[in-house]
Amino acid sequence: MRLPSPMFRLAVVLSLCAGCASAPVRSAGPAVLTTQETLVTSQGLTEATLRYQAQVASPAQGVVERAEYELVADGQVVKTGTAKLDVPLTPGAPADVSFEERAPYVKSPEDLARLSSQGGTLLLALRGTLVVRSGDREEAIPFAASRAARVPRLPTVVVEELDGARYSNEEVQLNLRLGVRNPNPFPLKLEGLTWTATVAGKTLDSGTLAKADTVDAAATGVYPVELAVTKDTWGPEVKALIAKGLLPYGVTGEVTGPLLRVPYSLTGEVKLNVSR
Q: Least packed by Cβ within 10 Å: which of 109, 116, 126, 185?
């Protein structure tokens, strides 16, 4: 039998190689999210800080370049942004990616009052795309993760303590302690607590307390007020008033803070102690 010539065998090998080169190259596949979550790392009466963290797996070398995102509160977009990440991707080893964003979730005093009366929780979320680059190819991985947070609640002002000491038949000293109760699981920043005090319908004094103060989470800030009921502060009929041994009082004002305006009005009676 006659064997094929060396040139024929070379032509067959070249044709097979050409067929291999022309076969389609299969893609390694896209990068994917394997886990994701959003955490509320801090919260205030009007703002919150969210942290998004996830793992990205890729069948090819690459890098998670950035996150393009929206921060959503109660179904409304309150902030958009871009976070630079530059996290390298290695095949077979999921990479951790994370970023934080702080934004207000309350737009106005009216919005704050609405949320406070609504109660319960509201959803805070981060959503958008993670941009992954592998060689000259860029792909976007959609992401979205939310977390429930306690609805912010308005503080209340109360009379923590009030007593009256009769120094004479024409002088009484009232010691008043106003309390600002913070029902939230986070500190409450105050700008001030205004007050105007009356006794038997007549104004004695007024002022502002708690300037640039903070009330701890689930706590009460207490602010003292001292009032003198005398002929000079109340009027010439003060002797007859004190003789009754029971003084009707009223305190009105407003507690203020960032987007916070809460008026209050407190009334009652104080029984006079014996003379000191």
A: 185
Amino acid residing at 215? V
- Which strand (E) or helix (H) includes residue 265? strand 260-273
Structure tokens at 159: 């009379």
How does pLDDT run across 42-69, given as a tens digit for each residue?
999 999 999 999 999 999 999 999 999 9
Residue 116 DSSP code:
H
3-state secondary structure of 179: strand
Which DSSP helix (H) or strand (E) runs through 126? strand 121-134
- The model's pTM is 0.79
CB 61 within 8 A of CB 90: yes
Strand-strand pairing, 260-273 and 156-168 = parallel
pLDDT value of position 150: 93
Of 74, 249, 76, residue with least CA distance to 175: 249
